[in-house]
Amino acid sequence: MVARNRFLKIRVSEQEKKLFKSGANTSGMNLSVWARQSLALAARKKTIESYRELIQAIYSVQTELNCVGNNINQLTRYAHSKHEQADLVYIKCLLQGMSEKINSLR
User: Fold this and answer.
1) Structural domain boundaries in the chain
2) What is this structure's pTM?
3) Phi and psi torsions of 48, nearest 5°
C-alpha cells in the first residue's frame, strides 16, 4: 500500500461539502478515498483530452504535408513534361506557396 503522509487542504462551501460527502457515502467510501479517486479521474480525463488535441494537430500537419507533397509532384511533372525551359516564374510562385504552408505549420 502507498504511504499517504501528505496533506491537501482545500476550501469548499457547506453545500459542496455536503455534495462530496453524499458522493462518498453513495460510493461506499470515506470522503478521503472518494476525493482522491475523483481527483485522479479528473486528472486522467484532462490528460486524455490533451492527447486528443495533440492527435488532431498531428493529423492537421499530416494533411498540410500531403498538400505540399502533391505540389512537389505537380512541379516535377510540369518540369519533365516540357522539353523547353520550364516557366520559372510559375515554379517560383508554387515553391513560395509551399514555403508559406510549411512555415505556417511551425
Assistant:
1) 14-105
2) 0.46
3) -65, -40
